[in-house]
Write a structure and sequence with these properties.
alpha+beta, Rossmann fold, Dna Ligase, domain 1, five-stranded parallel β-sheet, 12 helices, 25 strands
Length: 423
Amino acid sequence: MNVVLIGSGGREHALAFKITESFKLEKLYCLPGNPGTSNLGENIDISGNENILEFCIANNIDLVVIGPEQPLVEGLADILRENKISVFGPSKLAAQIEGDKSFSKSLMKKYNIPTAAFEVFDKSDYNNALTYLKRHNYPVVIKAFGLAAGKGVLICENYDDAVSGLNDCFKNNTFGDAGEKVIIEEFMVGQEASIFAVTDGNDYLILPAAQDHKRIYDGDKGKNTGGMGAYAPAPLVTDKLLKEITGKIISPTLSAMKSEKMIYNGCLYAGIMITEEGPKVVEFNCRFGDPETQAVLPLLEGDFLELLYSAANGKIDKSSVKYNGGSSVCVVAVSGGYPDKYEKGFEITGLNISDNEIMIFHAGTKEVKGSILTNGGRVLGITSMIKENDLKLAKQKAYEGISKINFNKMFYRKDISDKAKLR
């Protein structure tokens, strides 16, 4: 099977790592890929929907796996499917579930899928939004409606913070077009879990639950980021709770999408808040999460490529993979200053770790004359992959790995997985 993987981040490196385990794989192309994926397939530096289509036709591609949300929201899956190329990833219409938060919130409201109470405002509603904020309880959450690289969510502790956040969206253009409209919603109290449902639009397979760490500093302090680390499986999500999540959220959402004439094919990623009232949706994403993918995929045994291919072709083979009984912790090494301004171009040392329980997933890196340099905010995901379901040991292993890595101004959290109440 000839496969194209779209993307260049840590999630795509993890997807490539798992896809290459399949005996059915003949050739993997990563468009554009990164220095990590170059060891697993062939990196091809092309972009643009038409260029990607031409490449797939010329190279007899059997499956395209689209990693990031942007090409999904822009309709790459539709163009490929129109040309009889199998795609793992939702259509442009279905990808609205992430690309337009006002769409997803309205969908949940219409079909009684549990989520936070909310109201939607655009720029012309600025004064009405201020009035609404004056009456609201605090904290309150303000979300840019569009794609903002995981940073368009503002938790406001008081009215002044909320006005500042609203101005960031409507007046300061902090989030660009993504901030042309906002969702103001109640602040939900509880722990959050990430649930991946691989689906053909009708049936689905739930992968091991994970927990992300969004804030930049230990103890969930500081600004939101794209993700500072993750671990799996999350013991917070018991079998009983997972049954409730699938019954009240995953199945109804896929049915709702079908009712709206948007059959959802790909990975439905549900960010779930476990509240006193039960699980509620924080947000939906139309792809695998990053960095949760780096922690979840090492816990699968079987043929991951077959899972993706069968889902893409409308008849998911749920027996193709299963949980291997282990545990994984991914710690993200970021550039100093992230998620604000940071410098790039620093050489990374210590990457040659010869330990089959540690994997280094590249994200913001580039290769120059044989050296690997920093090239982004989130640089690497140092990930433990142990056979035992022992998060304490998995954490120890991950930090053992990151202690060997170094680059100028490197920063990382020290408490990834501590929410699991390690003993």
